[in-house]
């Protein structure tokens, strides 16, 4: 009783089928990584009638954007490309904190570095309801860029490493984490957004 | 017909293509695993602006999207060209946002609710009025972690 061998199935078309599926997935795949500017909104006001805390004029860097996408920075018209430099000057401020045009200092306890004077800077951003979103993002981007450049320079000076490397090391090292906290404590990112005005409509 | 003579023996043997399916399958699995199917059909046109100081958005499962832009051409006859908000698959008004946030929270593991991010995918030509309204609604709903979706570029132009 010799059993006949079953004939082998021809697998030649397997590749074609697999290719077909492959091309389908190739076409539908979107490899985009979502990127963006991450922000934290202020918590809702408990009492809307309460007046906002008073802030001294010299501590505030005022940025206004109107409905025609024009910038007014500290009362002067400006281009977006100059905003970063100006914001950096303001964030760093005066090392002795005596210039009446620049923000005041406040004695603060900073991790690693101990007690030191920290600038009371605040950047106030106000836009119109007619401002384009593109302009708003540009301004946000430049302000964020100013902070990150200032922090970078400070981290380089104090710890000999740029911020990006410190942050990477902070995942594994306690020391680097403290250093990151120190840099953030010396130059905290304070961007305050006022409710937009509705003018020019 | 001697032009089509059989090749003489002793020529190069044909390359075996038996492993071709394996290679193709390997690629296929790679793409199957990496593919993320788009969950919503966009009803608004969104071209995000570009920025330089971008972060990557991590933990996609904790990200909810809010789209703002003008309706796609097909729907412009019905809805006009003024920018609108889209939540999930439908147009919405700013009053729907509170509910949307609550619904998204329901679907998320309670321990991870504080990590939820709302990503605003806004067209660059949209005006800030509508974006501000959305932000105010998010504040009311206590959804404070937001992300302005932007592309990456090397330089900002005026």
- What is the oligomeric state here? heterodimer
Mean pLDDT over the full residue set of chain B: 83
Q: How many DSSP-defined strands of chain A?
A: 8
Please name the CATH architecture of the domain at 57-147 in chain A: 2-Layer Sandwich
Point out poorly predicted stretches of chain B: none
CATH topology annotation of the domain at 50-152 in chain B: Nucleotidyltransferase, domain 5
Q: How does the overall form of chain B come out from the CA principal axes?
A: elongated
Order the strands across the largest sheet of chain B as they lie in space.
Answer: 5-4-3-6-7
Order of H and E elements of chain A: HEEEEHEEEHHHE
The count of DSSP E runs of length 2 or more, i.e. the number of strands of chain B, is 8
User: Widest sheet of chain A: strand order?
Assistant: 4-3-2-7-8
Number of helices of chain A: 5
The N- and C-terminal alpha carbons of chain A lie at a distance of 97 Å
Q: Kindly provide the name of the CATH class of the domain at 50-152 in chain B.
A: Alpha Beta
* N-C termini distance of chain B: 74 Å
Q: Report the uncertain regions of chain A.
A: none
Secondary-structure element order of chain B, as H and E?
HEEEHEEHEHEE
How many strands, what sense, and barrel or not for the largest sheet of chain A?
5 strands, mixed
What name does the CATH topology of the domain at 57-147 in chain A carry?
Nucleotidyltransferase, domain 5
Count, helices of chain B:
4
Please summarize the sheet with the most strands of chain B: 5 strands, mixed
């Amino acid at each position: 009783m010799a059993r006949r061998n079953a004939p082998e199935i021809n697998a030649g078309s397997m590749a074609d089928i697999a290719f077909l599926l492959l091309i389908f997935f190739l076409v539908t795949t979107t490899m985009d990584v979502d990127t963006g500017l991450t922000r934290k909104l202020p918590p809702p006001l408990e009492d809307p009638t309460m007046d906002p805390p008073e802030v001294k004029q010299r501590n505030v860097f005022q940025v206004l954007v109107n409905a025609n996408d024009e910038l007014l920075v500290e009362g002067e018209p400006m281009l977006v490309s100059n905003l970063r430099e100006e914001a950096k000057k303001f964030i760093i401020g005066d090392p002795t904190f005596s210039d009446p045009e620049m923000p005041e200092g406040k004695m603060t306890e900073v991790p690693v570095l101990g007690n030191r004077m920290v600038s009371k800077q605040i950047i106030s951003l106000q836009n119109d309801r007619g401002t384009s979103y593109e302009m708003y993002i540009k301004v946000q981007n430049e302000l964020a860029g100013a902070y990150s450049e200032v922090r970078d320079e400070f981290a380089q000076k104090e710890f000999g490493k740029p911020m990006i490397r410190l942050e990477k090391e902070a995942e594994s090292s306690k020391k680097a984490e403290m250093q990151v906290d120190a840099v953030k404590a010396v130059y905290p990112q304070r961007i305050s957004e006022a409710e937009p005005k509705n003018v020019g409509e | 017909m001697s032009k089509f003579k059989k090749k003489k023996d002793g020529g190069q043997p044909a390359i075996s293509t038996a492993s071709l399916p394996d290679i193709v399958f390997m690629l296929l699995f790679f793409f199957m695993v990496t593919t993320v199917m788009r969950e919503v059909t966009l009803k608004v046109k969104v071209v995000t602006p570009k920025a330089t100081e971008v972060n990557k958005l991590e933990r996609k499962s904790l990200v909810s999207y809010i789209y703002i832009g003008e309706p796609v051409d097909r729907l412009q006859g019905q809805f006009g060209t003024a920018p609108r908000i889209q939540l999930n698959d439908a147009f919405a008004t700013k009053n729907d946002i509170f509910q949307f946030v609550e619904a998204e929270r329901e679907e998320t593991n309670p321990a991870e609710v504080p990590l939820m991010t709302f990503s605003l995918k806004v067209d660059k030509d949209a005006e800030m009025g509508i974006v501000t309204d959305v932000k105010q609604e998010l504040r009311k709903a206590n959804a404070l972690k937001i992300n302005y979706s932007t592309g990456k570029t090397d330089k900002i132009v005026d």
